[in-house]
């Protein structure tokens, strides 16, 4: 079955056409600068066709129209007609407490996603525009919403309620939601499959370390804690986001430096993390390059990043009463032997020990633990689009 996966962001639409039975990517692409006169359309299908052209895409409807037109185009298309698209899977960032799993998109579901705009004001509106545009272009095709938050809906109250007056949770829905759920779910399933073990018997810690970072404790296939929370400015230091900091620092900025909300947001979301620490870049590759040349601040930045990750591993091993598998994924997790080594050093007491020769791997599914280690440390490339396609398939295959 061919499933179109759509991820519509604030000014972009990413798409993939996936054959869900053999898990093969058929074609993929991206429209950037939706709503502008100088939009950019990139389209590729394996192994080597890649088209990049300028165009003018006024809105999400014209964007989705262009995507479908390209997929069926006689010259560069990959399908004969639109009827080959049997379902559409949409990434939706925030499902709030309303969606603990993926759902078939109905008018009622759209209303609930609209209600959750208050929780994700930057993300849910463009996700909705993508859904509505796709429904207009493909009115008879079933559509499924796959939420970044739903995998974490199994987190117990003691881990998702913050120790502030309870009314904030009861009346305002302020609680830990967690994000990157599709990625944490995908890599934990993949890790169990790779080791030929049942998810039901495993305690897994998944480290999604990219430009955005989050770490999750996955017990028996279910998320039981995660480092992102009510929003996306907590837990790990990230490319430009600070992660966990003492809220007193924010009060200091407000009271002593008289900074306004927007200025503080700018500092903690855009000028902190690896960029703020290193003063070099938000990109771990550039920070690593400088560290290798002997730049002490760059080295310290990587130490701080790795130290936070190590603390989460310790905490989540405690939460689950042990750990069987550690999974590294996303840009840094998949590609940085330096970071993986720093995170895993001196963790033998937990049964974690990596093999330096195996750890050189980049972007490949591999077990990098020493043969005498109790815990399997794996590098697992994430594939959120494939997970969305699989979730979509699961839902549409049972519709009459
Ligand atoms: P993502 O958000 O998952 O696309 O990850 C993006 C981040 O991955 C970039 O900002 C880089 O810091 C990091 N990254 C990608 N490739 C490498 C690499 N070879 N070594 C270290 N970091 C990398």
Give a structural overview.
- This protein is of the alpha/beta class and 400 residues long.
- The protein has 2 domains: 2-147, 2-Layer Sandwich (Nucleotidyltransferase, domain 5); 195-384, ATPase, nucleotide binding domain (Nucleotidyltransferase, domain 5).
- The protein is 36% helix and 22% strand.
- It has helices at residues 60-72, 107-115, 124-137, 157-160, 167-172, 181-194, 247-255, 261-270, 273-278, 284-292, 296-320, 330-335, 337-344, 384-396; strands at 2-8, 12-19, 24-32, 36-45, 49-57, 85-92, 103-104, 143-147, 203-209, 213-219, 222-226, 325-329, 366-367, 376-379.
- Helix 6 packs across helix 14.
- The longest helix is centred in the C-terminal third of the chain and has 25 residues, at 296-320.
- It is globular and about 55 Å long.
- The site of adenosine monophosphate has 13 residues, from helix 10 and helix 12.
What CATH first level of the largest domain would be assigned? Alpha Beta
Percent of residues in helices comes to 25-40%
Q: What is the CATH homology-level superfamily of the largest domain?
A: ATPase, nucleotide binding domain
- Main sheet attributes: strand count, strand direction, barrel closure: 8 strands, mixed
Strand order of the largest sheet: 5-4-3-2-1-6-8-7
The H-and-E topology, N to C, reads as EEEEEHEEHHEHHHEEEHHHHHEHHEEH
Bound heterogens, unique: adenosine monophosphate
Q: What is the number of independent domains?
A: 2
Offer a few descriptive terms.
400 residues; alpha/beta; Nucleotidyltransferase, domain 5; 6-stranded mixed sheet; binds adenosine monophosphate
